[in-house]
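Hi Q.,

Before the meeting this afternoon, I wanted you to have the zinc ion prediction in hand. No need to reply - just skim if you have a minute. The sequence and ligand are here:
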Amino acid sequence: MDSYLKIWGSRGGVPASGPEFNEMGHATICIELSLPSRTVIFDAGSGIAPLGEHIVSKEQSPPITLLIGHYHVDHLMGLPFFRPIYSDEFQTTCYLPNLVEGSGWKSLDRFFSPPLFPVSLDVLSSTVQFREFNPGENFPLGEDLQCRTMLLEHPGGNTGYRVYNHSVDVTVMTDVENIHPGPFAELVQFAKGTRYLILDSSYSSEQIKTKRGWGHLSVDDVGQIASQLPATTILMIHHDVMKPDAQVKSDAARVLGTYPNLVLCRETESYYF
Ligand SMILES: [Zn+2]
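Predicted structure with the ligand bound:
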């Protein structure tokens, strides 16, 4: 069976509604890395709900590894609607970074609490396991699959993940900002040699002028990274929900035309290794 990446959600902020968003998609961030022996999921935006239905519909599902980057609501909102976590038939391990608020588990627990959501973490299947870690730690994900992590510049922090084995290598940085040159250089170093880099591309050259400190990259930042990682395919993600598809495409056009290793992420699209 082939290994592939599939985009289940590519929007930042809140899910988009309307035909002007059909091409890039409507759901917030969720990416599947499908391997023969494991399903790895990056973030639990609204796109994880249909991914859950897909997993439930299969005759057999390999163990699920869920890697949460941070606890902003656009990256968590789908998790209560991810059916595998309520069923003993599925094995899910959920990795939770300890960020500025401290315990990752407590951050998730706040989200699964009234009045935000009526159901608490206690009702999840006992087959769901949680593992906290500090960004910067590296750990194995089972068999030959390895995971490296780094802390990203984002309000409250976010986690960059690199997951790899002998046949796949993907780096995910959904929300990150270019404020300090040191961390920006580190980010490029972290991703060096990766096959796919899924990268925040929220803002146009114009938007970034008023949005420094909001935690996201501009298309020019993405172009700068693309020039330093020419052998990596960079999938541009976290499309601003205020921007219809036509705007996303025209904002990205200046860098897409310059760097052939850039691709705009579209919901439901798959990328093979
Ligand atoms: Zn976000």
